[in-house]
Design a protein that fits this description.
Layout (H helix, E strand, L loop, with lengths): L2 E6 L4 H11 L7 E8 L2 E8 L2 H10 L1 H4 L4 E7 L14 E2 L5 E9 L2 H10 L10 H15 L2 H11 L2 E9 L6 E6 L4 E4 L4 E4 L11 E4 L4 E6 L2 E6 L10 E2 L15 H7 L1 H12 L16 H6 L2 E6 L1 H18 L2 E6 H4 L11 E6 L5 H12 L3 E6 L5 H5 L2 E4 L12 H21 L4 H12 L1 H10 L1 H11 L4 E6 L4 H15 L2 E6 L16 E6 L5 H13 L3 E6 L6 H4 L2 E4 L8 H19 L18
Parallel strand pairs: 15-16, 15-17, 17-18, 18-19, 20-21, 20-22, 22-23, 23-24
Antiparallel strand pairs: 1-4, 1-10, 2-3, 2-4, 5-6, 6-7, 7-8, 8-12, 9-10, 9-11, 11-14, 12-13
Helix pairs in contact: 4-5, 5-6, 8-14, 8-16, 10-14, 10-18, 16-21, 17-21, 18-21
The structure holds 2-deoxy-2-amino glucitol-6-phosphate.
């Protein structure tokens, strides 16, 4: 996590860095800081908490900083050391000559720190990053060349890093490098921009170079040179970023999350427009670069993801197995990477990630790629590190998602899985033709049904008010909606901090039912179809233990009003497709509860949108 930016040119570095950091706030918001080159020295400004706090400090120092045209900046999601000012970046060496910002984790920082302390360095912070500032300074004191100092230091560091480095003796130089963390250089006229991600630079230039692992770029106002750690010069060709600057606006909504929930019908419309033309035509999914005979003969799929993307993957497993008769395993990336996995060239590995940068998923993907598997990436960021590893790439096209809590990207991931599963079923001929047509025709009217749910959001707002003051929340479901229960619980806990858990309804009686009493809300996801009666029975069992019962249903049965204290009704839909509708009221419920409790909905505590550390 963390976001870094750098600027060298002729404009106010402070303004450009702050603008860039604002665009990277999704990567963390524990603290922030900038280092600005002044005549013969580097000035550092840092603040705890949100970026606005740093903004206030810079505003007070406006006259002092306005002339600086070289600087680096950082927004932090704390890993090593509490989110205090002293641990905030930039970090410097003891004489203040070297200043650095860092995204990633230095794994051997303890050994390095001991070594550097023995050599006389005094550490002020608890961070892993400070070791790198001292290490570069030590190297510099011997070679007096900043690029060489960074190159030598990078050879001694283990772990993941993207670094921007400046030195007080070099008012026309910034050195940057990376390994297993994103970093790109924007190329302007007489200026360069460095950043963890495109939104920080796109307002200024579309011409850019993505730095590769172990490359070191030296930026002066009119030149960029790239070398590798063995000192070989690297030839590079800038690319034109396929991005437009987007003004990130809430469009009148109180929070980005609410806006993004409301964007879901149009996200679905856009995706379907390109891929599903009629119930009689084949799904258009040319992005999947597996020939028909390979697709037909696939017998094993592994899907790897984290968090909300993992829940989309679980729905993916259910429908691929149901429609295509192919065995699918789903695993949290963080578990996958530290065990022996039976993955080989006959396995299709699907990585799912909104950001395309999640470190655990990226590592898992690289591991399976090394074993020869075909890698299919489903992501909202076709320019991401994961996308660059893909043999096949499904770009879910949800548009930029600002709120840390994923909503529209989940919808887009789900829909991508449905289209993929239907496509594979078409190729294999594994799905009954009339069911195939029913599913396609129901997908085509999905946007209108989503709109109907959003029109009735006041009901959910009312439900939120009734249950907002609970300490715990249980979501139960079965079958294709078990992941919906998990995702509903995740949404609620991440933005309201209520202890929410999703269970397969049949598992309640194997333990969790012991927690039920008159204070516990149980929300049953009751979609018409194969498991409806079973969940109804599980709801009766919960009611018998005096739980506060809520139904989320597409049934019109009035009897539900007796069993449940509150009934949220949604439009009817074929059971397989019901996760696409059922999740929306749960997103709204989480949103309204968090809003009612006065929580920071878009930037919940301790979280970051892009989790670039393992
Ligand atoms: C979603 O609401 C969460 N903030 C989080 O679980 C997220 O889904 C997870 O970190 C995975 O991110 P990714 O999709 O970008 O890989």
């Amino acid at each position: 996590m963390c976001g870094i930016v750098g600027y060298i040119g002729d404009k106010s570095a402070a303004d450009i860095l702050m603008d860039g950091l604002k665009q990277l706030e999704y990567r963390g918001y524990d603290s922030s800081g900038v280092a600005l080159m002044e005549t013969d020295k580097i000035d550092i400004y840092k603040a705890e908490g949100k970026l606005q706090n740093l903004n206030d400090i810079l505003f007070m120092n406006r006259d002092k900083i306005v002339g600086s045209t070289l600087g680096i900046g950082h927004i932090r999601w704390a890993t090593h050391g509490a989110p205090t000012v002293v641990n905030a970046h930039p970090h410097t060496c003891n004489c203040g000559g070297v200043a650095i910002v860092h995204n990633g984790i230095i794994e051997n920082f303890k050994e390095l720190r001991e070594k550097l302390e023995a050599q006389g360095c005094t550490f002020r912070s608890q961070t892993d990053t400070e070791t790198v500032a001292h290490l570069i300074a030590k190297k510099y004191s011997l070679c007096k060349d900043l690029t060489e100092a960074v190159r030598l230091a990078s050879k001694e560091i283990d772990g993941a890093f993207a670094l921007c480095v400046m030195h007080k003796d070099h008012p026309n130089k910034m050195v940057i490098t990376k390994r297993n963390a994103p970093l790109l250089v924007g190329i302007g006229e007489g200026e360069f921009f460095a950043a963890s991600d495109v939104p920080a630079i796109i307002k200024y230039t579309k011409k850019a170079v993505y730095l590769k692992d172990n490359q070191i770029a030296t930026l002066t106002r009119d030149d960029m040179q790239i070398i590798d750690t063995d000192n070989n010069s690297i030839f590079f060709t800038p690319e034109i970023l396929p991005w437009e600057p987007v003004a990130l606006s809430k469009m009148g909504y109180k929070h980005f999350m609410l806006k993004e929930i409301h964007e879901q019908p149009s996200v679905v419309r856009n995706i379907l427009a390109g891929k599903l033309h009629s119930i009689d035509s084949e799904i258009a999914l040319d992005e999947v670069k597996l020939d028909k005979s390979t697709l037909k003969n696939l017998n094993r799929i592994q899907i790897i993801a984290c968090g909300t993307s993992l829940h989309a993957a679980m729905v993916g497993k259910y429908i691929i197995e149901s429609f295509c008769d192919i065995a699918v395993d789903v695993e949290a990336s963080s578990e996958y990477i530290y065990r022996k996995t039976v993955t080989n060239e006959n396995t299709l590995v699907i990585g799912v990630s909104q950001s395309g940068e999640t470190a655990d998923t990226l590592t898992a993907i690289k591991q399976s790629k090394a074993k020869g598997s075909h890698i299919l990436i489903i992501t909202n960021r076709p320019d991401s590190a994961m996308a660059r590893e893909a043999d096949s790439l499904i770009s879910v096209n949800a548009g930029i998602e600002v709120s840390v809590a994923a909503t529209k990207s989940y919808m887009a991931q789900l829909l991508s899985f449905y289209l993929l599963a239907l496509k594979m079923a078409e190729v294999k001929g594994s799905l009954d033709d009339s069911l195939l047509k029913t599913l396609k025709s129901e997908l085509m009217v999905l946007p209108q049904k989503l709109e109907q749910i959003l029109v009735h959001k006041e009901d959910i707002q009312q439900c939120a008010k009734i249950y907002a003051n609970t300490k715990d929340f249980i979501f139960i479901a079965r079958g294709v909606n078990y992941p919906t229960a998990l995702e509903g619980a995740l949404k609620l806990k991440e933005i309201s901090y209520i202890n929410a858990t999703g269970y397969p309804a049949g598992e309640l009686k194997h333990g969790p039912i012991a927690m039920l009493d008159e204070s516990m809300p149980v929300l049953s996801i009751l979609m018409k179809g194969t498991v409806y009666d079973k969940i109804l029975s599980n709801s009766e069992e919960s009611k018998a233990r005096n739980a506060r019962m809520i139904a989320l249903t597409n049934s019109t049965d009035d009897k539900l009003n007796t069993l449940f204290d509150f009934v949220i009704r949604i439009p009817e839909i074929q059971e397989y497709l019901s996760p696409l509708l059922a999740i929306v009221p749960l997103q709204l419920l989480a949103y309204y509860i968090a809003e009612f409790l006065g929580k920071d909905v878009d930037q919940p505590r301790n979280l970051a949108k892009s989790v670039t550390v393992e």
